[in-house]
């Protein structure tokens, strides 16, 4: 047995095990260590349940980066990244060629604007009219989301469409840079089930835009609340990170249901998109946001993600500085245009 290094391994780390086959050849098993026993090792390959490997067949073992590598995320075309991000925050929608018409019950600009990227399949004036008609039919403002200074941005502004709202920067980072060599913080729980406590915390994070009544689940809930849940809970794979109250003396039963910090992750191909990163004011400056983002990064890495992205208001300098310290850099920017008149 030559499983050099496994005695220093910790469950949750990503390792490469070179194993001897019965015919004398060798093969590599790459994955996350689930358990290390005297005679066996349980390792979970990407997108798979753990498998048991006899330690007697391990020729060599070495620790691997926490996520797969790949091309520099800055080399990803802007349009490709916008399409990867599209299912991460969406409710009702329908295609218009390569564009997407979106209706989220009026909740957030991103879910209630047409994503104008690529060829709409019709002339631009007709596409613009279709956006206006769709918005009118769904009772939302006629907005489009465009990449700043793209052909769509320039052409629509030539038709009289005007910028509204703030410019948003899209930041990107390799998962290996975000995760470094660490393991998930034990303070953070990650689940693929949207809990009522997480939803209540999300409502507290947006007191001026979202009323708790909008998130009710009984027969009297408002349509807006249903759309919010559709945005948060739809289009898996997605996961919800939460931190229970870490204060001394916190009631365990209440802490389990009322998180003090939350974040949401969405997996789209090699991309992890993170949103709704929020911590109760009295629990800030404890590293909880970073811990949740890294926990979601570990979850996404097991699903094949290589890179992460965030969408941040361009004038939110504090957030830019914080994410920059984690390795995020600006990839591109987008903004919203509204129809003339």
UniProtKB/TrEMBL annotation:
It holds the Pfam family Rv0428c_C. InterPro entries: Acyl_CoA_acyltransferase (IPR016181), GNAT_dom (IPR000182), Rv0428c-like_C (IPR056935). Residues 213-341 form the N-acetyltransferase domain. PANTHER family: N-ACETYLTRANSFERASE (PTHR43072). Coiled coil: none annotated. This is GNAT family N-acetyltransferase. It comes from Microlunatus aurantiacus.
